[in-house]
Amino acid sequence: MAIAMPLLAFLINTIPTKRLYLFSLGIFLLGVLIAFFAPTFPILMAARALQAIGNGIMTSMAQVVLLTIYPPEKREVSWAGMVSQLVQLLSWLRHYLA
Fold it and tell me: Nearest CA to 66 among 84, 79, 54, 57?
């Protein structure tokens, strides 16, 4: 993700957001398929690197998309909603996995 974030600033200015998201999803899924069928360990590691690149772009884009969609006066509400949902999920997991 540390490599993908500086690259993402350039990519968002040159490629439309939807196309970039689908491209990064494609890179991630290609990495999943290669990792699934990898006959050797080096190929598996290369596939995991593809997954990391795709995931790094998608994770960084999530914040950009949320901050683009929500107007500045509603951003606090959207972040609070995400945090409250995360807390509910974690408490549910703690309850059922413990």
Answer: 79
Instruction: Report whether 4 contacts 24 (CB < 8 A).
Output: no
The two tokens of residue 77 are 């509400």
Single-letter amino acid, residue 7: L
Q: What are phi and psi of 38, to 5 degrees?
A: -65, 125
Domain that holds residue 58: 4-72
Residues 6+ away with beta carbon under 8 Å from 32: 47, 51
Would 83 be classed as within a structural domain? no
- Position 77 in a domain: no
pLDDT digits (tens, 9 = 90+) for 49-81: 999 888 888 888 877 777 777 777 766 666 666
**How many CA atoms, within 13 angstroms, populate the side-chain half-sphere of residue 29?**
6
